[in-house]
Amino acid sequence: MAGLHRSSSAPSKNGLPPQELLDDLCSRFVLNVPKEDQQSFERILFLVEYAHWFYEDNTVEKNPSLKSFTLKEFTSLMFNSCEVLKPYVPHIDDIFKDFTSYKVRVPVTGAIILDQTYERCLLVKGWKGTSWSFPRGKKNKDEEDHACAIREVLEETGFDVSELLNKDDFIEVIFGQQRVRLYIIAGVSDDTSFAPLTKKEISEIAWQRLDDLQPEGDDVISRSVAGLKLYMVSPFLMSLKAWILKHPPAVAPKPDVYRRGFSVWKAKNSLSGSSSALVESQYIKPAPDPHVADAGPGKSFRNFKFDTQSIVRAMESAFSSYPLPSA
């Protein structure tokens, strides 16, 4: 990784950033921060991660000739370029490994956003991969749970839940050593506009039917009946079902309408082939479909059951066996 280091300030033919740019990133994100944020490698690596996001989302997008890096590559580049970090370059592999282990212990908060009939919830799909989840993210240092949820939902969906959030209305699940708390935000209109405020983090936002989140079979982690990956969704469904039973929606489901799920925002790659993305926001109003009386909207979701503990155990096993990035 040391080969990424550049001492020259001249533009690089192989796309490596000039030293002036690295100095600016180091000064902006690492040096000019409160002293307490420089007291541990965990905090320093979070600062480096912020610098990485800024570099990828802004600098590379404005100058496509610059190379894009993984977080580990960018961390090595910063340590080799910043004078205050250079003494720790020989230990960078261990520092990064400890950081990745630490990250899975940082508490996460977010929100389960329900439509007005409580038949659909809002899910987001990450920039990479095909997994869906509720909008959520890791807490900052000394940040309150509900404040983190408001911030993360706003960043990932562009929707401000601050006026709708009840601090006492949440579902919490422990995954290994990580606590995940999701606040229930119910009664949001399905024609609300959504679009992430951050770049290259969310690829799609959609209203998904709760009925479609049921497991396809015994392998409840892999996919739902609609083919959706349930990895970060299914552990919350049983508690969500119980909450809905105790809190009937203000808007009753219409018996003659099949309330399908639909995408409300999707990012598409630029046709030019660059790393930037052209963002398209499209609202698709679900069309009324013929309805079967004995399979009413939400009925099957309200009746289904599965073993949440088996999901949590499987996820704990997955976390413990997940390989850390190699040197």
From TrEMBL:
<dbReference type="InterPro" id="IPR015797">
    <property type="entry name" value="NUDIX_hydrolase-like_dom_sf"/>
</dbReference>
<keyword id="KW-0694">RNA-binding</keyword>
<keyword id="KW-0464">Manganese</keyword>
<dbReference type="InterPro" id="IPR044099">
    <property type="entry name" value="Dcp2_NUDIX"/>
</dbReference>
<protein>
    <recommendedName>
        <fullName>Nudix hydrolase domain-containing protein</fullName>
    </recommendedName>
</protein>
<dbReference type="GO" id="GO:0000290">
    <property type="term" value="P:deadenylation-dependent decapping of nuclear-transcribed mRNA"/>
</dbReference>
<dbReference type="GO" id="GO:0005737">
    <property type="term" value="C:cytoplasm"/>
</dbReference>
<keyword id="KW-0963">Cytoplasm</keyword>
<dbReference type="Pfam" id="PF05026">
    <property type="entry name" value="DCP2"/>
</dbReference>
<keyword id="KW-0378">Hydrolase</keyword>
<dbReference type="GO" id="GO:0000184">
    <property type="term" value="P:nuclear-transcribed mRNA catabolic process, nonsense-mediated decay"/>
</dbReference>
<dbReference type="GO" id="GO:0003723">
    <property type="term" value="F:RNA binding"/>
</dbReference>
<dbReference type="GO" id="GO:0030145">
    <property type="term" value="F:manganese ion binding"/>
</dbReference>
<dbReference type="Pfam" id="PF00293">
    <property type="entry name" value="NUDIX"/>
</dbReference>
<dbReference type="GO" id="GO:0140933">
    <property type="term" value="F:5'-(N(7)-methylguanosine 5'-triphospho)-[mRNA] hydrolase activity"/>
</dbReference>
<dbReference type="InterPro" id="IPR020084">
    <property type="entry name" value="NUDIX_hydrolase_CS"/>
</dbReference>
<dbReference type="InterPro" id="IPR007722">
    <property type="entry name" value="DCP2_BoxA"/>
</dbReference>
<dbReference type="InterPro" id="IPR000086">
    <property type="entry name" value="NUDIX_hydrolase_dom"/>
</dbReference>
<keyword id="KW-0479">Metal-binding</keyword>
<feature type="domain" description="Nudix hydrolase">
    <location>
        <begin position="104"/>
        <end position="233"/>
    </location>
</feature>
<dbReference type="InterPro" id="IPR036189">
    <property type="entry name" value="DCP2_BoxA_sf"/>
</dbReference>
<comment type="similarity">
    <text>Belongs to the Nudix hydrolase family. DCP2 subfamily.</text>
</comment>
